[in-house]
């Protein structure tokens, strides 16, 4: 493990109320020799849309061996050492996460990873926050930024594509912030890494006994340069996520200048069943389809937009089993495309929950092998989703993040480091049938959104 400190990686914003002090910042390298090579990322990995980080916040309640200061200090020291050691071992099978990402010199639109065991960033810090501070949504979108000073934009400038920060809270609890360069993995892949990381820390597995080994094989989702132009010309209307819509209301201004307020709402089994009854369908729609439709309706209705403004809901769809042949088990690259439901503000409000859930369902059903291949070719041509009228939703509730144990038992809170206009579905501690919805909305729309989200209507 090499000592490491670079202010560009650790520059922390000053708008967080609590105090966070970095005790140590080092680079953790793989515990065993790893291949020295350059690996190409796939067309999906390299797309412009994914030039941002995946950032997780995992909160662990305190389990002090005793109330003495010495025992507490020893507990922290032992836990920190265990996590650093486990990280070094996890980077052996996942050695590309210890590499550095760069543009391919022959084709700058494509990315690659230089694997020389350069290492991942590990930070230990202390804070005057307590576990209870995370029971509600943060007061600002960046309130928890200091719990992981990971700048995703710097990954293409030589920063480590994996960063881990262990922050000890004043009550003995701990927050683990983890950031991945999204170009290297998707939600499923990152969660698989974190579960292995935790299992190594607790001794549940050993490196030589992995039941599922990580698989690179990024060529399986590469484009064919000869067909890119044809795809872009003939399939644009079939992929509404890439189509621009008219901005009738200075849409982006509402999110950049008005500012955003984070919100958090829990839907347990009872509230999900209520949505099912309102939709007048007991089996037609999945819980995801119903809840995402409800969120989209509430968001759209709260913004006070023109009735003819077109809105889109974009959501991640796992394609591991939708392409032919299916991707191998252990594939941790970006293996998702965006489903896209589209309608006007008027129809979103007037046509009812069942109709909107149907739009989400149809958007999912359209995604098959041919659809995915068309997306691969499209993003290879530099196409990205337009942001006007768009709400992006990602389902983290089924990634297994709530099972990750580093020797401090399971996390009592799972969420993002920063809460923004991306909507996240999150797991709820000890409630397997519940989902927490986190979304930041413009300040002026908060009251309306919270009324609609808690008062479902048909």
Q: How would you characterize this protein structure?
A:
- The chain is an alpha+beta fold and 458 residues long.
- The protein has 2 domains: 2-220, Chloramphenicol acetyltransferase-like domain (Chloramphenicol Acetyltransferase, 2-Layer Sandwich), CATH 3.30.559.10; 228-398 and 409-454, Chloramphenicol Acetyltransferase, CATH 3.30.559.10.
- Helices cover 28% and strands 24% of the residues.
- It has 12 helices and 16 strands.
- Strands 1-2-7-8-9-4-14 form a 7-stranded mixed beta sheet, covered by helices on one side.
- Strand 5 (100-103) and strand 6 (111-115) form a beta hairpin.
- Helix 3 (69-90) packs across helix 4 (187-202) and helix 8 packs across helix 10.
- The N and C termini lie far apart (57 Å).
Name the descriptors:
single chain, 458 residues, alpha+beta, Chloramphenicol Acetyltransferase, seven-stranded mixed beta sheet, six-stranded mixed beta sheet, 16 strands, 24% strand, disordered N terminus
Give the secondary structure arrangement, pairings included.
Blueprint: E1 2-3, H1 7-10, E2 20-28, E3 37-40, H2 43-46, E4 53-60, H3 69-90, E5 100-103, E6 111-115, E7 120-127, E8 162-168, E9 174-181, H4 187-202, H5 228-234, H6 251-256, E10 260-267, H7 269-278, H8 287-302, E11 310-318, E12 336-344, H9 345-350, H10 352-365, H11 369-380, E13 390-395, E14 413-416, E15 423-428, E16 431-442, H12 446-454
Helix pairs in contact: 3-4, 5-11, 8-10, 8-12
């Amino acid at each position: 493990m090499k000592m490491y400190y670079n202010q560009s990686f650790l520059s922390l914003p000053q708008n967080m109320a609590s105090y966070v002090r970095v005790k140590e910042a080092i680079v953790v390298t793989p515990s065993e020799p790893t291949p020295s090579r350059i690996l190409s990322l796939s067309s999906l990995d390299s797309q412009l849309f994914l030039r941002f980080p995946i950032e997780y916040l995992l909160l662990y309640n305190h389990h002090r061996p005793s109330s003495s200061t010495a025992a507490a200090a020893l507990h922290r020291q032992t836990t920190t050492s265990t996590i650093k050691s486990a990280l070094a071992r996890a980077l052996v099978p996942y050695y590309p996460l210890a590499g550095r990402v760069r543009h391919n010199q022959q084709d700058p639109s494509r990315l690659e990873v230089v694997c020389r065991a350069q290492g991942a960033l590990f930070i230990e810090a202390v804070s005057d926050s307590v576990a209870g501070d995370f029971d509600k949504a943060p007061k600002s979108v960046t309130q928890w930024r200091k719990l992981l000073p990971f700048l995703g934009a710097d990954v293409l400038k030589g920063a480590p594509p994996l960063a881990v920060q262990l922050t000890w809270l004043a009550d003995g609890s701990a927050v683990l912030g983890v950031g991945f360069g999204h170009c290297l993995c998707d939600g499923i892949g990152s969660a698989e890494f974190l579960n292995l990381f935790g299992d190594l820390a607790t001794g549940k597995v050993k490196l030589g006994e992995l039941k599922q080994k990580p698989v690179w094989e990024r060529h399986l989702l590469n484009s064919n340069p000869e067909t890119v132009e044809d795809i872009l010309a003939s399939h644009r209307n079939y992929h509404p996520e890439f189509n621009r819509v008219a901005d009738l209301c200075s849409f982006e201004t509402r999110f950049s200048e008005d500012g955003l307020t984070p919100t958090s709402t829990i839907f347990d089994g009872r509230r999900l069943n209520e949505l099912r009854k309102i939709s007048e369908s007991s089996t037609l729609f999945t819980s995801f389809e119903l809840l995402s439709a409800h969120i989209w309706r509430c968001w759209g209705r709260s913004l006070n937009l023109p009735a003819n403004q077109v809105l889109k809901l974009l959501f991640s769809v796992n394609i591991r089993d939708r392409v032919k042949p299916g991707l191998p088990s252990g594939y941790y690259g970006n293996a998702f495309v965006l489903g896209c439901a589209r309608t006007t503000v008027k129809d979103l409000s007037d046509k009812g929950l069942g109709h909107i859930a149907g739009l989400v369902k149809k958007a999912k059903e359209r995604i098959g092998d041919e659809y995915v291949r068309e997306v691969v070719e499209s993003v290879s041509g530099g196409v990205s989703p337009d942001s006007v009228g768009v709400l992006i939703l990602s389902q983290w509730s089924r990634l297994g993040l709530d099972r990750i144990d580093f020797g401090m038992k399971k996390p009592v809170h799972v969420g993002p480091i920063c809460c923004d206009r991306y909507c996240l579905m999150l797991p709820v501690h000890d409630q397997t049938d519940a989902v927490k919805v986190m979304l930041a909305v413009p300040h002026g729309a908060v009251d309306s959104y919270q009324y609609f989200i808690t008062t479902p209507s048909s």
